[in-house]
Amino acid sequence: FKTNSASWGKEYYKFCSNNLGFKYNCKDSPRNNYEIVFIGDSMTEGIGLPYKKTFVGKFQNKTKFSIANMAVASYSPEIYLKKIDYFIKNNLIFDHLIVGVDLTDFEDDWRRDKSYKKNENNKNKKTNFKNTIKLFLNKNLPISFYLIKQINWFYKLNFTDYSDHKHLDYYNYGASWSYLPKGNKFYEKKELILGNLNDLYVLLNANGIKFSIVIFPHQASILYDNRNSTYYKIFKDFCNIKCYRFFDAYNIFFDLVDKSSRKDVSKKYFIELDSHLNENGHEIVSNVILDNL
Length: 293
Prior knowledge:
Blueprint: E1 2-8, E2 11-16, E3 33-40, H1 42-45, H2 55-63, E4 67-69, H3 77-89, E5 93-100, H4 105-112, H5 114-117, H6 121-140, H7 142-159, H8 173-176, H9 186-206, E6 210-215, H10 219-224, H11 230-242, E7 245-248, H12 251-259, H13 262-269, H14 279-292
Parallel strand pairs: 3-4, 3-5, 5-6, 6-7
Antiparallel strand pairs: 1-2
Helix pairs in contact: 2-14, 3-9, 4-9, 6-7, 9-11, 12-13
C-alpha cells in the first residue's frame, strides 16, 4: 500500500507498507529474512512521520542493516507475542528483535485481557463508526475532509484547553501510572505485561533470536515525570536478566531537560500537544540504539 495522504492530527505524510504489511521505505525489495526486526506501537511505527524520519528508518539508513518494522499504533506485548509467533511459524527469518515498550503498553495489555474486553464493546462500536465516516470523507471528498480537519485542529489548538483532556493531561492513564502513587490494580497489570514479555523472550530464545528492549518518554513524561521513573525501573529490571541489550532512550531526554527545561525539550522533540516524538526526537532514539548495539 502507498499513499501521500496518511494523516495524524492536522498533518499529512507519506506512508508505504510492504508485501508483509510492514511500514517501510517504499523501495526495498520483498524478502523473508532480516537482520533486525522492530516491533512496538505508534511510537515505534513512527506515526505522523514518513519512514525515513522515524528512528527505525534513520537507524536503517545509518547502518544499512536489513530491517523490518512490524510496529502498528495501539499494539502492546500481547500482540507482539502473537505476531512474532505467527511470522516465525510462517518462516520469516531474523536474527534480533528490538521491542519498543511504550508507556501505554502497561494499560493496553490490561485492556486486552479477557476480564476487561466485555466492557470495551460499546466504546469500540463508537470508535469504529467515527473512523468509517473519516475514511469515507477522505476517499470521496478529500478537499472537504482536509478543510474540515484544518478547521477542527485550529479550533482545538486556539480555543480549547486541548491538552487537559488528551495526551498531556496529568492524570491521563497512558503515562500517569509511572509517576502517580501505585494503585488501580498496578501489580496485576505489571504481572500481566511482564508475563507477556517473558513469553516472547522464551519464544525467541527457543528459536535462537536475540531479544532487546528500547524505551522512550511521552511528552507527559517530560512534563511531569522524572528520570529513573517507575516505567524505567520496571523494564530495566526485566532486561537485566532477559535482554541482549537494553536501549535507554528515556533518561537521555532528561539529560536534555537538565541542560534547558522541561518546556523546551517538550517543544523541540515532540509533536505539538501530542505524546509522540517528532523527527528530532526520533533522531535521538536512533542514535541511542546505534551507539549501544
